Amino acid sequence: MTSPLAPSAADALLFDLGGVVIDFDLARTLKAWAVELGNDPSAMLATLARNDTFHRYETGHVTDAEFFASVRAALRLDLSDDQLREGWNAIFVGEIAGIAPLLARAASRLPLYALSNTNDAHIAHFSERYSGLLKPFRELFLSSQIGLRKPNAEAFDFVVNAIGVAPSRIVFFDDLAENIEAARKRGLQAVHVRSSADVARALDQLGL
User: Fold this and answer.
1) Strand runs (DSSP E) across 145-205, as ranges?
2) Is 16 helix (H, G, I), strand (E, B) or coil?
3) Fewer CB within 10 Å, N side or C side of the chain?
4) Are residues 85 and 97 both part of a single domain?
5) Residue 6 lies in a domain
6) What highest taxon heads this organism's lineage (predicted)?
7) What is the pLDDT of residues 39-76, one digit of tens each?
């Protein structure tokens, strides 16, 4: 079990977006693309995640058109780029329940930043749709813009350097255990988020 955070133990807070701030569901995308979901739609995400094109897309080395062409071939879809984009953006459900007031509360005391694995199509969509929700963040470090993605150590090192705060004074919130482990290896404090209650608990421990 992770030790509780100490009061005044942070100078900056770093949040993942998907699964921590904004909820998403791949089944919505597959349904929009009229892909047979089967028993485990997450298996389709795993297939995409193993695809080198997907990783290169999330680090800005593949264009929207190239990614959609890869998806079209992999899933044998007869859809235009615009149709694929619309379905791709259907993945977003809405803000995580209870997170907005917690972000506002935290931002009144400490600077907030985000580090998220994402892509240009999603950025264009959520930046507009969730502009109010994202307002408390001082800066967003998005993988396709910085050319680095979690859980690679270089992504954390880049963000720590950009923030200008010692890693031990940054608390990182993420919903994936592999990213939590990677952050801790780079010296950050990290909180595994399963719901906004985990964020609230961490803020309480920090005295925020």
Assistant:
1) 170-174, 189-192
2) coil
3) N
4) no
5) no
6) Bacteria
7) 555 666 666 666 688 889 999 999 999 999 988 888 88
